[in-house]
Structure to design on (149 residues):
């Protein structure tokens, strides 16, 4: 089995898209993540639902205990969202990804997913352009298939 057989197509957004457009892409593609590329389509890193929330919710809410969140109304939360719609993707993305290239073995992919505890590992071509993504779900499916389950 080749690495391509345990991957799915990468969902890609440009680094200069706004938070609102990133959310639109993620919604349209029905995923909780997207890979971020620069103007040359080279991988910078990714955005997921957690980084989106951290971009929206002010630090003072994250920095205190959850009681602050308990007293925040839906109207206030909506204002947090509206205040950040134009924030650019490169201001809230995760950085320094662990990646594998398209020639990697399946074993290398499985070890990378578990060793780095990333929920997804981008697969890039020789020019560092993202082409696929491996998730722990795909690793589980691969292992089950190898066990004839």
């Amino acid at each position: 089995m080749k690495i391509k057989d345990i991957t799915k197509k990468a969902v890609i957004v440009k680094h200069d898209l706004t938070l609102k457009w990133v959310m639109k892409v993620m919604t349209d593609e029905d995923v909780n993540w997207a890979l971020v590329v620069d103007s040359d389509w080279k991988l910078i890193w990714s955005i997921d639902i957690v980084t989106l929330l951290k971009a929206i919710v002010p630090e003072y809410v994250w920095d205190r205990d959850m009681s602050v969140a308990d007293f925040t109304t839906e109207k206030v939360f909506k204002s947090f969202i509206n205040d950040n719609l134009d924030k650019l993707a490169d201001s809230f993305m995760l950085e320094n990804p662990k990646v594998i290239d398209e020639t990697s073995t399946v074993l290398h992919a499985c070890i990378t997913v578990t060793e780095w505890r990333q929920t997804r590992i981008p697969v890039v071509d020789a020019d560092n352009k993202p082409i696929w993504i491996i998730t722990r779900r795909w690793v589980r499916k691969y292992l089950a298939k190898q066990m004839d389950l």
Q: What stands out?
A: The mean pLDDT is 85. The beta strands are 8-9, 12-14, 33-37, 43-48, 100-101, 120-124, 130-135. The chain has one domain: 3-146. The CA atoms of residues 119 and 137 lie 9 Å apart.
